[in-house]
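User: As part of a screening pipeline, I want to sanity-check one entry by hand. Below is the sequence and the SMILES for adenosine-5'-triphosphate. Please return the complex as structure tokens so I can compare it with the automated output.
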Amino acid sequence: MTAGNPLADARWRRRNRWIDRLPWGCDLAALYERAYMPDDKLLVFIDEATKTFGDKLALNGISFEIPAGQICGLLGPNGAGKTTLFRLLMGILKATSGVLQVAGLDAFEDRVATKRLIGFLPDEPVFYSYLSARELLELSAGMHGLDIDSTMEWAEALARRLRLADDLDNYAEDFSRGMKKKLGLLLAMLHGPRLLVLDEPTNGLDVESTHLFYELIQEAAGSGTTILFSTHLMDHVTRLCSHAVIINDGAVIAQGPLAELQERYGEASLESLFLKLTARPQQA
Ligand SMILES: Nc1ncnc2c1ncn2[C@@H]1O[C@H](COP(=O)(O)OP(=O)(O)OP(=O)(O)O)[C@@H](O)[C@H]1O
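Assistant: Here is the complex for your manual check:
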């Protein structure tokens, strides 16, 4: 076994659980490759993560892994637990139980170090009311120990692509929802993170901006950034992601490569698969 290393121990337990649960006809080669993926290729490791708020069980033993370089869509109906999971990964909340690690670091205990590896775009970005967008970018560059001039040159070029450059000297608090998302993405990408965590990134964006957003995300992925993002838009997942994790009522109900998921459940589209797996009884 792997005594003393919590990541290795947790992965060992997962491997054994997988072997117990192997369904007939499953792709053994793919499972084997995943189970024995070297730890240095594993960027996100989540094992049996549980979160309660008082009596409310928001996450109920979530487990999945994301290897470096993957674009993974996190899907789930309203209230499934997506934002809670992101807040645990960012070390904003502490898990009630379970393991959440980014590049081997504990998401809560090592949250300062972890934040250097992650760029996070919340669903509703909130900014200091007394700083302009430019000042926020400069402050963030300073906090990450980056060279301010060259970082701002990079940020301005990106802001021009996102049609935000003319607003950089305005107060971010006065920005529209879409403009706040754009600034949030710039701030998330500023330090060249290894992992981008995006909570409904295109919520509130117009069609052109959505297109530009995804172009930037794909470019980031192309240069090796791992992406985990949530959305309710299935066609966006199909367009962008190689893999998806579907959660419902705080638990993972399906995960894997998109094509394999559809094939496994005999569904022609991700949307029909999602609807099939997350169907709920009518409320009285
Ligand atoms: N601070 C909190 N206190 C109490 N309950 C909470 C808290 N945060 C989240 N919850 C509950 O946990 C569950 C999961 O919420 P969460 O925001 O993670 O869902 P979500 O998947 O992001 O939903 P949506 O798609 O609507 O954004 C919900 O039932 C929510 O009410």
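Points to compare against the pipeline: The beta strands are 42-53, 56-67, 71-75, 97-102, 105-106, 118-121, 195-199, 226-230, 243-248, 251-257. The longest helix spans residues 6-21.
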